[in-house]
Amino acid sequence: MTTTITHATGTVVPTALEGYRASRPARTLVHRILNRADDDVTLREFGLRSGSFVLVFDGEAAAVAAFAALGVPQKLAITDTAVHSLAMSFVIAEGELSIEQDRDNVRLWRVTVPYNEVTA
Fold first, then answer.
1. How many CB atoms lie within 10 A of CB 66?
2. Which range of residues forms the domain containing residue 96?
3. How many domains are there within the chain?
4. What's the pLDDT band for 94 if we cut at 50, 70, 90?
5. CATH number of the domain to which 63 belongs
């Protein structure tokens, strides 16, 4: 499995990807009508994905470089050879980009990436 994030000046290739989480906001509108048992409904498409994932790196230098590259305002793209449904263009628009060293194995570093999917 190879995860690749493409950014404006290159690529980020972590050792592993973990904790992928996604949700899509429902945009259907329900209009409550007085003196009626049934409601009027306006069906709308769901929004694009948002959530977070964690990039795992075997070494501080690679993690710090990824943290710096992802911290630049830009549109990014992610692909994964094992999880094809992960492929998307995204931005880091909400939440906090964070980096931390593993408590048990000090060689491992994790970068947590909050994302909002965007159209390519």
1. 23
2. 3-118
3. 1
4. confident
5. 2.40.30.200
- Strand 50-58 and strand 108-118: the pairing is antiparallel
CA atoms of 35 and 87, how far apart (whole Å):
47
Computed on alpha carbons and rounded to an integer, the radius of gyration of the chain in Å comes to 19
pLDDT single digits (tens) 11-43: 999 999 999 999 999 999 999 999 999 999 999
Count of CB atoms situated within 10 Å of the CB of 118:
15
Residue type, 37: A
Q: pLDDT tier at 1 (50, 70, 90 boundaries)?
A: confident
In angstroms, rounded to a whole number, what is the distance separating the alpha carbons of residues 23 and 51?
Answer: 6
